[in-house]
Design the sequence.
């Protein structure tokens, strides 16, 4: 016994190293396979507030650009508003339905990252503002990600530039859908997989979100086809999609929630059980 | 002793904030975020409790992980650097670093730079290997280690000559 204790004492540094290494390995592997850690993420009070203060200062430097973007968006919305009478006569049922199904909340990004394989953003709204897990996040130009964790005043968003991200997407004006993934390459290019070989594709075609998910509404723009080729089995396409969003420069975002999400999920779960 | 503790505590906090608020948002050329907090291991006193040093390193990495949503990657890399530091020191400064009167002032510039470079290389290797965690991206790992490593080395060398510690 004496010898064992002596042995442990003489190698105590190696033991300490092993112990701490095992702890961090466990945490890493957990964050690879499951959701991001619930307790240690940047939406927490201290990190959220520090990021919030820093974003408060740095946001002054891009005010002009950001204003320009918002003015452009307002212009587009106004155009919609003035033409609303016409549109609603044509398909009244549809538009009134849309207005009721989805709710929109705006927020500011306080921390953005796009250079690691698993990127997360932090935004300055949390559960107090009605943010919940699995809400969709978009910008004025396109899709951004999905809410992963919330604290009372901040939330983290799993970006589309994340190897764990998997979003339903389709080619505009068709119903061929696939999954949007990312291969850790370029931060402005994501991959669309599982599109069958028989689909006619053209470089420059627009990719939008599909109707299969209860997170995003249909037809939110994602990007355009940059390049495509067949995968190993020669039956599906691998498509490189160039994002509309400039992922390095994101400030104002909108969160979308589907009011009937729970209902859809329950129904689907029920159907699968039977 | 107390002033050493205070100095290192202050360094700890300032390096975490600098890393998280400035260097993590740099994205030079789209992917280079220099990990300047490695300079902590260069500045840390040579003599002292090794176990305490490793725990401090782990906590430093953990704080940075906490802010940048990369749970336990920075902790792992920092811990490894802290564990391997005596070996690297013996390699760079020879056996005489174990004597009482050894200090950084007696060493040449090249020796210090090699020491810093090896600390950075080890840190980057561990960090990016576990960040990517797949051998199919071997070239990506090498590219990231090399590019980020060089930028980190330049910035750390600047830091070490700008804020050289007086107490050691």
Sequence:
């Amino acid at each position: 016994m004496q010898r064992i204790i002596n042995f442990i004492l003489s190698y105590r540094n190696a033991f300490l190293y092993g112990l701490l290494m095992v702890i961090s390995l466990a945490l890493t592997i957990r964050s690879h396979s499951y959701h991001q850690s619930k307790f240690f993420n940047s939406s927490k009070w201290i990190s959220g507030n520090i990021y919030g203060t820093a974003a408060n200062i740095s946001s002054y430097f891009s005010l002009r650009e950001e204003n320009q973007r918002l003015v452009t968006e307002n212009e587009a919305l106004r155009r919609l508003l003035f033409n609303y009478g016409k549109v609603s006569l044509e398909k009244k049922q549809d538009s009134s339905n849309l207005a009721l199904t989805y709710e929109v909340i705006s927020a500011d990004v306080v921390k953005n990252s796009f250079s690691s394989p698993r990127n997360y953003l932090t935004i300055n709204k949390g559960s107090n503002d009605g943010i919940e897990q699995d809400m969709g996040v978009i910008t004025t130009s396109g899709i951004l990600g999905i809410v992963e964790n919330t604290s009372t005043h901040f939330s983290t968003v799993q970006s589309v530039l994340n190897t764990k991200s998997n979003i339903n997407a389709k080619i505009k004006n068709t119903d061929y859908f696939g999954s949007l993934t990312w291969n850790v390459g370029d931060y402005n290019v994501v991959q669309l997989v599982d599109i069958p070989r028989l689909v006619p594709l053209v470089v420059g075609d627009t990719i939008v979100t599909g109707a299969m998910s209860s997170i995003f509404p249909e037809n939110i723009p994602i990007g355009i086809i940059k390049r495509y080729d067949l995968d190993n089995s020669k039956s599906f396409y691998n498509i490189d999609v160039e994002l509309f969003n400039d992922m390095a420069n994101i400030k104002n975002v909108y969160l979308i929630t589907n009011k009937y999400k729970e209902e859809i999920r329950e129904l689907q779960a029920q159907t699968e059980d039977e | 002793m107390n002033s050493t503790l205070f100095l290192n505590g202050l360094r700890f906090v300032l390096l975490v904030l600098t890393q998280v608020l400035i260097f993590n948002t740099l994205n030079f050329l789209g992917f280079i975020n220099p990990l300047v907090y490695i300079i902590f291991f260069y500045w840390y006193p040579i003599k002292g409790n090794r176990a305490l040093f490793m725990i401090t390193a782990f906590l430093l990495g953990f704080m940075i992980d906490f802010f940048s949503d990369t749970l336990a990657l920075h902790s792992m890399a920092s811990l490894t650097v802290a564990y391997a530091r005596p070996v690297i020191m013996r390699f760079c400064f020879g056996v005489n670093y174990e004597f009482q009167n050894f200090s950084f002032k007696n060493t040449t510039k090249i020796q210090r730079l090699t020491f810093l470079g090896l600390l950075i290389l080890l840190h980057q290797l561990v960090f990016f290997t576990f960040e990517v965690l797949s051998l199919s991206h071997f070239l990506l790992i090498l590219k990231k280690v090399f590019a980020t490593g060089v930028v980190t080395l330049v910035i750390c060398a600047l830091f070490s000559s700008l804020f050289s510690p007086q107490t050691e």
Q: What stands out?
A: The mean pLDDT of chain B is 85. The two ends of chain B are 11 Å apart (CA to CA). The CA atoms of residues 88 and 124 of chain B lie 15 Å apart. Chain B touches chain A at residues 17, 20-21, 24-25, 27, 30-33, 50-51, 54-55, 58, 61-62, 65-73, 75-76, 79-80, 83, 130-133, 137, 140 (CB under 8 Å).
